UniProtKB/TrEMBL annotation:
GO terms for molecular function: 2-oxoglutarate-dependent dioxygenase activity; sequence-specific DNA binding. Residues 138-294 form the JmjC domain. This is JmjC domain-containing protein. One of its GO terms (cellular component) is cytoplasm. The gene is gb05872.
Length: 333
């Protein structure tokens, strides 16, 4: 992938055991810089049970453990070979079905590459403590708010009010070698962190100061895949982009700052744990996105303002449907 883009540097790698929270804030969170943190996952239950025990297997995923112990009704899966609008085509299947496909794909590389994404593992299995959130990431206003949201007590009421549409932003990802995630910036312009329980990933990062260069002339559509030929007539500024690269190894945790576009490829069979979150240091990123989306939602229905009994309420409901939260969620959280 790096052959098609200009890589100008590597993401810094720091031993998380020797880094204080204040140092993390000063060096990475407040200045909004990515970093790879090592030494933080050794005590995790997932590090032991989600990988094969035989040293000869080199920490490969213990997919059979998932099929036996986590019979989730349905999980969201992306077909990495099929594009649908601005993302990969989405499917739903059970964990045993997904694992069966994974095993068959290992034997027959002609079948489609499926990537389990956005599995709400913590919500589905709260008593199975797979990991402990590293200290650097526990000031998490988003998931703290969602933990007490009415959606967990009465999903019908929450859905009827059309407020938040996600139970939490704490996910497990599972994908075979070759699965990938298209170029994107994270939901809400939030921070995210991603820990490799096993496997290796390649990340390419673009600074927010250059993010406009991955969009077309009208700033409406963005580059989907850095592996594709990117036509200059559609994306005239793309050739000027300069990227940071990172090869994330097993048991390493990467901090993804707000507004950094990134594309990720699994270089080996991989299981990762991922959170999105925000706090005081990146709240302005979230607000700017929310307010911009609000203006779009309001403009879209401006012609019915005079006949609408609750125009502002409709704007907020549409904002929540489009963006995943509205002003109420933002100010309460």
């Amino acid at each position: 992938m790096e052959g098609r883009v200009k890589v100008v540097g590597q993401v810094e790698r720091v031993d998380g055991r020797s880094l204080t929270y204040a140092e993390f804030v000063d060096r990475f969170m407040e200045p909004n810089r990515p970093v790879v943190l090592t030494g933080l996952t050794g005590s995790w239950r997932s590090s032991e049970e989600w990988t094969l025990p035989d040293p000869a297997d080199c920490g490969r995923p213990n997919v059979g453990f998932f099929a036996r112990n986590f019979p989730s009704p349905l999980v969201p899966v992306a077909d990495c070979s099929s594009r649908e609008f601005t993302d990969q085509k989405r499917l739903e299947m059970s964990i045993p079905e997904f694992i069966d496909h994974w095993i068959r794909n290992t034997e027959d590389r002609d079948s489609s590459l499926l990537y389990l994404k956005h599995w709400h593992f913590v919500k589905e299995y709260p008593d199975y403590v797979a990991y402990t959130t590293p200290t650097f990431f526990i000031d998490d206003w988003l998931n703290m708010y969602l933990d007490s949201h009415p959606i967990h007590r009465d999903s019908d009421i929450a859905n009827h009010k059309n407020e938040v549409n996600c139970a939490d932003y704490q996910f497990v990802y599972m994908g075979a070698k070759g699965t990938w995630t298209p170029l994107h910036a994270d939901v809400f312009m939030s921070y995210s962190w991603s820990a490799n329980v096993c496997g290796r990933k390649q990340w390419l990062f673009l600074s927010p100061s250059q993010s406009h260069r991955v969009f077309d002339r009208n700033m409406r559509s963005s580059v989907y895949n850095l592996n594709d030929d990117v036509p200059e007539k559609h994306f005239p500024e793309f050739h000027k982009t300069e990227w940071l690269e990172c090869i994330q190894e097993q048991n390493e945790v990467i901090f993804v700052p707000s507004g950094w576009y990134h594309q990720v490829h699994n270089l080996e069979d991989t299981i990762s744990i991922n959170h999105n979150w925000f706090n005081a240091y990146n709240l302005h990123w979230v607000w700017n996105l929310l307010y911009d989306d609000y203006k779009v939602a309001r403009e879209y229905i401006e012609d019915i303002r005079d006949i609408c009994d609750d125009f502002e309420g409709l704007c907020q409901r549409n904002l929540a449907a489009n963006t995943g939260m509205n002003f109420y969620d933002f100010f309460i959280s």
